[in-house]
Amino acid sequence: MPEYTFVCQRCGEYDTWKSMNSNLQEDTCPECSEVTKRIYKSFRTNQMDSKLYKRINSGMTPKIVKRENLPKSNVKQLNRNKNPMPWTL
Questions:
Q1: Which segments constitute the Putative regulatory protein FmdB zinc ribbon domain (predicted)?
Q2: I want to staple 8 with a disulfide (CB 3.0 to 4.6 A). Which of 29, 37, 46, 73 is the partner?
Q3: Strand pairing of 35-39 and 3-8?
């Protein structure tokens, strides 16, 4: 079960474990029993392995690759004039 964060107007934020089949937008406060709303936070990266953290962040920036460095295609290049059905390979 994933952990979700909710906010109560009286008590503040709290985290709770909920089933994905339950109502994920509202919950009841464990201290005052009022209806609370879910708030969305990014996942915690401070507890993540530093190598994995760098790999995730480097995946966000596009890499510039020159045409000559692209992998060679293994698809046969067909002459379009000889092939009566150019949509088939």
A1: 1-41
A2: 29
A3: antiparallel
